[in-house]
């Protein structure tokens, strides 16, 4: 089940379990579980105690998810004191639970986990925490604060606000503007947060979503539901699509229907979306960043927690228990700044 990263593998030495002995007393949010305060180390990149980090995420069937996994692996490879164990990606919650249980049985020093479903993975994450293994929760939140030592998220509500604010700036002077929304998987809290933020921003300029459909973050799904949307809405002034991979299908549906009367805003920040924005030859005028660095950041945070360090740029000696990344809007004016870090669809 596991592909163990062999590059820069830690040396096997007697007493390795003592590396994070303080963690064995158990972890709770906001603590490392040890008896000594973390070191406020401004040189956190310097090698420290050798640690093993387990990483598990969903199947890499999506450009953003692929970037999440490759980013985590690449980040771990930068540190000679990290051995990374990567569980096979899966969209089956039971298989992911089994992978985390294997990490627990192996006695890893920390776990970075992007759950297929936060609620379904909560119990096993709590089990890891109770075993003294700090869990870094990425992207999809658990349903209990006791399930993670650190939670690192993109700003889903903020994505919606950013998209809505941009559309207000473009068509807000038309009180009759028809606004459409192509959401992702509706059962996910992150999708719900994006839609709530979008509606709130539109409300500020007196607009509302007139037509909304939900897809599944895939090209095929985006094309199918957008075709349905276009049939129901003979005129659209602006459309927000939650996900740039899904947006490939959205744009295909627009092209097939010969519809180019609207402006479009994307989401996540794929390279192909940014290149379209840069070209100026598409209805896609902007996209809202949803950082694909979250798991890579999770690896760094797991290393700091397991080595009992803090974030060097903070006065506070504990690693924060919740970090929310920014959701900037990418347009033709600033695309060159963001394109180098964009993920491939």
- So, CATH architecture of the largest domain? 3-Layer(aba) Sandwich
Mean pLDDT, as a whole number?
Answer: 89
**How many structural domains can be distinguished in the coordinates?**
2
Low-pLDDT windows of residues: 1-26, 30-34
What characteristic shape results from the CA principal axes? elongated
The Rg value, from CA coordinates, equals: 21 Å
CATH topology of the largest domain: Rossmann fold
What is the share of helical residues?
25-40%
Give the oligomeric state of the chains in this entry, treating copies of one chain as homo and distinct chains as hetero.
single chain
Strand content: 15-25%
CATH top level label of the largest domain: Alpha Beta
Q: Give the SSE string.
A: EEHEHEHEEHEHEHEHEHEHEEH
What is the assigned CATH homologous superfamily of the largest domain? Answer: Response regulator
CA(first)-CA(last) distance: 26 Å
Word description of this protein:
- This protein is α/β, with parallel strands linked by helices and 345 residues long.
- It folds into two domains: 2-152 and 293-314, 3-Layer(aba) Sandwich (Rossmann fold), CATH 3.40.50.2300; 156-290 and 327-341, Rossmann fold (3-Layer(aba) Sandwich), CATH 3.40.50.
- It has ten helices and 13 strands.
- Strands 1-3-2-4-5-6-12 form a seven-stranded mixed sheet. A six-stranded mixed sheet has the order 8-7-9-10-11-13, with helices on both faces.
- Helix 5 (189-204) links the parallel strand 7 (179-183) and strand 8.
- The longest helix has 16 residues, at 156-171.
- The radius of gyration is 21 Å and the shape is elongated.
